[in-house]
Design brief:
Length: 263
């Protein structure tokens, strides 16, 4: 799928989790619901770090462009080193390492560890990165025509304000994990969710997605999973633009209403 659809699906997924959490007695404070949805929207773009032309490659100028090149090479090297006898040869790393459940878990766990042990500046950095990505995904038309510096300033300002809101008692810095020193441990959850939602979205397209790696399926270790080919669509097609994106908006609205006990 394309960046905007990925971000919308990520935000809708977190709002759905918010509704489920409220139904089971672990209701999210509204700042957690909002911040989590934005982080998930941004994290849903991150698996495309292995693609030099993806939305994320443009988000942070030359830094993200160079990082995408490095991750592409790393993913390709891992693919070549671990491919099974049924896996084809390939020239690049797109839709390999960063499109797996293992990558999602490792990135989310790393973010949680950084938030807990790195203190406020680590939290602000995590928020800044994902808020910029959320703007690039959710407001992609405006982001394309505006200055990168303005988007970064919006990310910095929003990260500072939202961290201040979360830090207030009862606003959610210790949501779900309430032990001493566990503030912001939950930040890894929307990052994991965003990556997995991205992978599921890509699995619906004609190329599929090797989300189960390194679990082998038959002679393949990088089996591109997805529904039957007749049910798949091309990225950017009318199915994505006219059916899935409106559906994500509706589902997100329903999830938000459930999370806030409006329904």
């Amino acid at each position: 799928m394309m960046g905007p659809a990925h971000s919308l699906s990520g935000a809708a997924a977190w709002l759905g989790v918010g509704a489920a959490a409220a139904a089971t007695g672990y209701a999210m404070p509204w700042p957690v619901l909002v911040v989590g949805a934005l982080i998930t929207a941004g994290a849903a773009l991150a698996p495309d770090l292995d693609h030099k032309s993806a939305t994320i490659s443009r988000a942070f100028g030359p830094v993200s462009k160079a990082l995408c090149g490095i991750v592409d090479d790393l993913s390709h090297a891992v693919y070549k080193a671990t491919r099974g006898p049924g896996d084809p040869r390939r020239n690049g790393g797109h839709r390999t390492l960063t499109h797996t459940w293992l990558w999602a878990v490792l990135i989310g766990a790393g973010a949680s560890a950084a938030a807990v042990f790195g203190g406020r500046w680590a939290v602000l950095t995590i928020l800044f990165v994902h808020l910029v990505l959320a703007v690039e995904g959710l407001l992609w038309r405006a982001a394309r025509v505006s200055s990168d510096v303005l988007v970064w300033l919006l990310g910095v300002t929003s990260a500072w304000i939202l961290a201040g809101v979360l830090d207030k008692p009862g606003n959610g810095s210790d949501w779900l994990f309430t032990g001493p020193g566990q503030e912001y441990l939950w930040l890894g959850l929307p990052i994991i969710l965003g990556a997995l939602v991205h992978d599921i979205g890509d699995a619906l397209t004609v190329s599929g997605c090797p989300i189960l790696w390194p679990i082998p399926l038959g002679r393949k270790r990088w089996a591109p999973l997805g529904p039957p080919k007749a049910m798949r669509f091309r990225a950017g097609s009318w199915v994505e633009l006219r059916i899935l994106m409106p559906a994500f908006m509706v589902l997100g609205g329903v999830g938000a209403a459930g999370a806030l006990n409006f329904i």
